[in-house]
């Protein structure tokens, strides 16, 4: 057996930990061997041979030297100043291997302390990076991502419409005779009529005022009435009482016995209620679920509500300008022309002139020959019983052949109202609607269609007289498409009613859009609000206030004009392109954009900063 004896100088050179392991193994081997054998050539300083000495004596000396070296190494310390543990404590079971029973810190050499210059350099580098981020990066990021939010009058947007909507109804009464007895009866009629109108609460939406007036027979011919209702009473004691309305002026002519003023007043009162019934129902339907609701709106039956909804659905949305297109489509080569200009001037222009107080109109015409039906319908079917060609009601909606008929789309800013005159061929004539037997129908929010069955002697040119019934039908369809109420019979009163309805609907639509814009700006705090939006909102509020004032004072056309401008302004503000684009870009998308860009850069900076702060803090604690 070979036993290695290591000197203290060699042990100090190769390291205490390694020597301890070697010595521990050697000592254990010596103690566990019954008859050890060794060679002196293995030791750098071999022991002298004792001639004649027994082998056991040599073993004792070697073991003694090993124990001596172990004891000296036990008292030694490591270069780090840590005491070397006793060999007896390296293993509780008497065995020891390389690194067994010792902590990792004892096996690692501690790094030398860092020079102050290196620490300062590292601190300055980290500070420089953070200074660039704080002084350049963050300001640039804030500048490039900041949004401009103009101040909006949110309180005014939400509360400007508080209050009730009232519609003044100025009624003027006059009599044909001017003697003393008639004047006295006229005063009594005014008193009874005012009592019924103001105390029966049959017109809760109207602010009724009654006054005497000097009636002019030419009233309404170019004179400004501004929604007043003129009641002209003729004394007639022999004939039964009756009333009538003038078509082009808001005049109600009453024939009654003025010597019975109470009965005459009641007759006038009933006629006023009848003429305002449709308008009152329509206004109640508009105001019921709006901020203007006062609780005094008339209750609508399901039939009345369905009728009003149908009228609203049928009419175009209000516009300041409409374009009228009159088209002649002939299934054959005849007729090839029509005297449309004269027909329009005779039958359409008077109506358009009356409607010009509400909207402006432009007109164009066109003709197409050999026009075919739309391929989406089955086409007319011949009925042997009636000897007529019939179109099913289900085919009416697809009657227009949009692919081949050159129907003009919307021209300019306003919508286009189409009026189509279809002349079938003689082989498919007469052509009627199967369910009703009629020859005309209306397409909601598009226009009207009229079928003109050719006569045997019909020329190639349709004169204005041939077009009379056609143009009257188109005129009636036009009133429905622009939203003119069906009653009363006076066109002037119907126009006044439509102006009030349109002004009310525009005010309600504008106020609703204002509220939606206010809620949008409060909910999306990161959305930009350009100055143009704030300017449009201010203009809208001003116009709405003026429209309400005009309504209360009876200036209905001015109220309609202000309400239309207010609606246009608030629609432009709500659909501002710079705002609409940001509505659909939530904060989650921003996080998804920033994390991949800032994560790889921010993590090293943050971790280095935290580590340096800890080092500086620990250095201060040690120095303290």
Jot down its keywords.
624 residues, alpha/beta, Rossmann fold, Collagenase (Catalytic Domain), 5-stranded mixed sheet, 15 strands, 47% helix, disordered N terminus
Kindly report the spatial arrangement of strands forming the biggest sheet: 2-1-3-5-4
Report the structural category: alpha/beta
What is the CATH architecture assignment of the domain at 316-481? 3-Layer(aba) Sandwich
Question: Average pLDDT, to the nearest integer?
Answer: 75
In terms of DSSP E residues, the strand content is 5-15%
Q: Span between N and C termini?
A: 58 Å
Contiguous runs where pLDDT drops below 50 for at least 5 residues: 1-20, 22-60, 73-104, 219-224
- Write down the CATH class of the domain at 316-481: Alpha Beta
Q: What is the β-strand count?
A: 15
Write the layout of secondary structure elements.
Elements: H1 8-14, H2 16-32, H3 55-75, H4 104-107, H5 116-145, H6 154-159, E1 167-175, H7 180-199, E2 206-212, E3 229-235, E4 242-245, E5 251-256, H8 261-287, H9 302-314, E6 321-330, E7 337-338, H10 340-355, E8 360-368, E9 381-383, E10 388-391, E11 416-423, E12 431-433, E13 440-443, E14 447-451, E15 461-462, H11 468-481, H12 491-523, H13 531-553, H14 556-574, H15 577-583, H16 587-623
Helix pairs in contact: 2-3, 5-16, 7-8, 8-12, 10-11, 12-13, 12-14, 13-14
């Amino acid at each position: 057996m070979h036993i290695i004896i290591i000197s203290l100088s060699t042990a100090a050179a190769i390291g205490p930990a390694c020597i301890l392991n070697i010595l521990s193994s050697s000592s254990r081997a010596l103690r566990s061997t019954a008859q050890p054998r060794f060679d002196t050539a293995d030791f750098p300083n071999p022991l002298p041979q004792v001639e004649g000495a027994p082998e056991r004596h040599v073993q004792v000396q070697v073991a003694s030297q090993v124990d001596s070296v172990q004891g000296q190494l036990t008292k030694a310390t490591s270069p780090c100043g840590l005491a070397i543990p006793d060999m007896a404590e390296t293993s509780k079971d008497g065995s020891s291997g390389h690194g067994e029973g010792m902590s990792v810190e004892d096996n690692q050499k501690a790094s030398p302390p860092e020079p102050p210059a290196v620490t300062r350099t590292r601190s300055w580098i980290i500070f420089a990076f953070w200074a660039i981020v704080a002084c350049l990066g963050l300001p640039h990021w804030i500048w490039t991502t900041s949004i401009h939010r103009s101040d909006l009058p949110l309180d005014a947007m939400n509360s400007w419409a508080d209050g009730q909507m009232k519609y003044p109804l100025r009624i003027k009464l006059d009599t044909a005779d001017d003697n003393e007895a008639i004047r006295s009866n006229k005063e009594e009629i005014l008193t009874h009529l005012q009592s019924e109108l103001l105390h029966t609460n049959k017109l809760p939406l109207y602010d009724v005022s009654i006054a005497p007036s000097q009636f002019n027979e030419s009233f309404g011919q170019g004179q400004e009435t501004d929604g007043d209702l003129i009641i002209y009473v003729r004394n007639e004691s022999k004939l039964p009482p009756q009333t009538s309305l003038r078509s082009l002026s808001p005049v109600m002519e009453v024939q009654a016995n003025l010597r019975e003023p109470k009965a005459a007043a009641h007759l006038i009162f009933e006629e006023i209620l009848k003429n305002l019934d449709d308008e009152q129902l329509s206004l109640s339907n508009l105001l019921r679920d709006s901020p203007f609701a006062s609780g005094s709106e008339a209750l609508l039956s399901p039939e009345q509500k369905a009728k009003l909804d149908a009228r609203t659905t049928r009419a175009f949305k209000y516009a300041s300008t409409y374009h009228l297109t009159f088209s002649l489509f002939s299934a054959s080569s005849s007729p090839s022309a029509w005297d449309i200009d004269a027909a329009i001037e005779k039958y359409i222009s008077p109506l358009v002139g009356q409607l010009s107080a509400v909207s402006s109109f432009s007109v164009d015409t066109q003709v197409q020959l050999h026009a075919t039906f739309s391929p989406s319908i089955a086409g007319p079917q011949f009925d042997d019983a009636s000897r007529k060609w019939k179109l099913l009601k289900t085919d009416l909606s697809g009657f227009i052949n949009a692919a081949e008929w050159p129907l003009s789309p919307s021209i300019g800013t306003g919508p286009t109202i189409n009026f189509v005159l279809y002349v079938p061929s003689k082989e498919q004539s007469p052509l009627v609607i199967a369910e009703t037997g009629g020859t005309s129908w209306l397409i909601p929010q598009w226009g009207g269609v009229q079928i003109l069955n050719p006569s045997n002697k019909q020329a190639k040119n349709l004169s204005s007289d041939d077009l009379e019934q056609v143009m009257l039908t188109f005129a009636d369809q036009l009133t429905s498409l622009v939203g003119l109420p069906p009653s009363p019979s006076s066109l002037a009163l119907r126009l006044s009613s439509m102006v009030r309805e349109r002004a009310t609907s525009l005010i309600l639509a504008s106020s609703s859009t204002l509220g939606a814009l206010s809620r949008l700006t409060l909910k999306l705090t990161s959305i930009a609000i350009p100055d143009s939006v704030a300017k449009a909102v201010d203009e809208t509020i001003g116009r709405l206030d003026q429209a309400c004032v005009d309504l209360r004072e009876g200036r209905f056309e001015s109220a309609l004009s202000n309400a239309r401008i207010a609606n246009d302004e608030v629609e432009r503000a709500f659909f501002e392109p710079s705002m609409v684009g940001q509505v659909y870009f939530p904060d989650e998308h921003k996080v998804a954009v920033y994390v991949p860009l800032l994560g790889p850069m921010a993590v090293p900076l943050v971790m280095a900063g935290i580590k340096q702060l800890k080092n500086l803090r620990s250095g201060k604690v040690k120095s303290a």
